[in-house]
Amino acid sequence: MKVNEKIQRPSLLLLIMEARTLLEAGSYFLTIPFLKSLSSFPKGDGHPVLVLPGFMASDLSTQILRNFLDELGYTAYPWNLGRNLAHFEELELMMNERVKWLHDHYGRKVSLIGWSLGGVYAREIAKAMPQYVRQVITLGSPFAAIDAENNAEWVYELVSGKKIRDIEPQLLERIVKSPPVPTTAIFTRGDGVVSWKSCVEPEEGPITENIEVWGSHCGLGHNPMVMLHIAERLAQSEGQWKPFRDKYGKAKAA
């Protein structure tokens, strides 16, 4: 795969609008207590959920989401690997071992939720060990065109000393492929960090789907609508997963 020239970086306006993540955090705290009081709100079944942070972020960034999952009745875990500095090859074995430990400890498959680059990692874990993974949910993860221009690439190049255009073609081809487990890509057209077009499955299928929400990239981890979709997706019984469009009769794809 060559550098993706069709997908342009988000505009400066969208990047500036990422500041609304503070409003999204406030709206979460205002609305979730009410929503969780509804009898129809999906409750958890206790299975383990591993949450992976985005590029340059740590487990602190996923604390709100993990607290929410714990309160629902799941057992949410941080990745415990410090700040995500895009060193996937160095961390891959440790992440795989953590998923296997969670699976063996609970005797149940593990759901993976990854924010931004963390979602790319989650998909790769699921490809490497699908027998341990129940489903994958990505939040603004640019797996469809990780080599496309974006508003975080300069940070990546500064930290790694590499250019996104130098990513090996074989790796790019691997990243684009969908995991062999149910996979939900949650995205927003208001993403100011990476293009939303790079965060969706090009073609949805029986176990792959895209769900669109309104909001910012940096607010996806505490966006109330994202929380609702995550709760609904996780609540499906193991082996009984159905795409959102099939369950509710309305497609949420791009």
Structure description:
The protein is of the alpha/beta class and 254 residues long. The protein has a single domain, classed as Rossmann fold, CATH 3.40.50.1820. The protein is built from nine helices and six strands. Strands 2-1-3-4-5-6 form a six-stranded parallel sheet, sandwiched between helices. The longest helix is centred in the middle third of the chain and has 19 residues.
Topology:
Elements: H1 12-16, H2 21-36, E1 48-52, H3 63-72, E2 75-77, H4 88-106, E3 110-115, H5 117-128, E4 133-139, H6 153-160, H7 169-176, E5 183-188, E6 208-213, H8 224-234, H9 244-248
Parallel strand pairs: 1-2, 1-3, 3-4, 4-5, 5-6
Give a short overview:
This protein is α/β, with parallel strands linked by helices and 254 residues long.
CATH topology: Rossmann fold
Q: Which architecture per CATH?
A: 3-Layer(aba) Sandwich
Q: What percentage of residues falls in helices of 4 or more residues?
A: 25-40%
Radius of gyration: 17 Å
Class from secondary-structure proportions: alpha/beta
Superfamily at the CATH H level?
Answer: Alpha/Beta hydrolase fold, catalytic domain
Provide the domain count: 1
Q: Strands across the major sheet, in which order?
A: 2-1-3-4-5-6
In the predicted model, the low-confidence regions spanning at least 5 consecutive residues are 1-5
Secondary structure tally: strands: 6
CATH class wording:
Alpha Beta
How confident overall, as mean pLDDT? 88
Strand content bin: 5-15%
Compute the separation of the termini in Å: 22 Å
Tertiary shape: globular
| Number of alpha- plus pi-helical segments | 9
Sheet with most strands: 6 strands, parallel
- Helices and strands, in N-to-C order? HHEHEHEHEHHEEHH
